Amino acid sequence: MPLWIPVTIFAAFMQNLRFLLQRHLKVTGLSTAGATWARFAYSAPLVAALAFGYLWLSGQATPAADLRFWAFLVPGAIGQILATMCVVALFAFRNFPVGVTLAKTEVILSAIIGLILLGDTVSPGLVAAIAIGFVGVVLLSDPPKGDTSLPLRQRLFNRASGYGLASGLLFGVSAVGYRGASLALDSGDVFLRASLTLAAATAVQTLTLGLWLAFRERGEIARVAASWRVSAPMGLTSMLGSLGWFTAFTLQTAAVVKALGQVELVFTFLVSVFWLKERSSAKEIGGVVLILASIGLIFWRSV
What we know:
Elements: H1 4-27, H2 32-58, H3 67-90, H4 97-103, H5 106-118, H6 124-141, H7 152-156, H8 159-184, H9 190-216, H10 220-226, H11 228-251, H12 254-261, H13 263-274, H14 282-302
Pfam family, one: EamA
Transmembrane segments: 40-57, 69-92, 112-140, 160-178, 190-215, 227-249, 255-276, 285-302
Organism: [Roseibacterium] beibuensis
């Protein structure tokens, strides 16, 4: 089995845990930007220590980070922040179901952006797997009903749809940017390149969003510092999940990694059924079946 497959599944599982902790932070009083920044601020030191510790222990030469590396990394890091904000903004609109669906175009857009910027190609079989998974994700998301009294044109072309498509595009830019940055490093094994790229990305995100909070949300940084009991474990899960994603991006095209990473929604579904004892609709069960079919097809085409 190719290494990127178990690494991606591990990353998706850790991301699921991180979302649970981040959701708890949001309901305890932090703003959306504050809860997002806590993820970067608490994971950045851990990632840096791990990356440079591994560099020292492995005895490898430090890879040179040239202009190409930063040209991929900075847009990827900023794109991830902006994409998250777009998703949050969706929920302020009454007619957001179409926007939520458009946000799920992330995998498809990752394939297009990867082809344009990196020349990454995807086989017909994997294209089919991505398409099946996309339908499953849309079914499993099952957003609340929109305002169906509005004309179709207004339901499709509105600010919510714009935010949804923007988030899918920005998440695609982020994934391809991280893969491009890791591949731009001129030396080092897979884990070294992935960890150093992640260290640079979290440093950029911590600094950028930290400056935003300092000027636009006075006092939020202090509230993040006071939330360390939850923020610190969240930083740990964020580091582990991100290391998985970055390692997988170094080994495989972003679109295929993101397609397999949709297994995270299956983890969330299982938690809701077996832990929270929530009842599932036929639509949700159908979505899980399609995602599992997509994952099975990816296994078959990759192993």
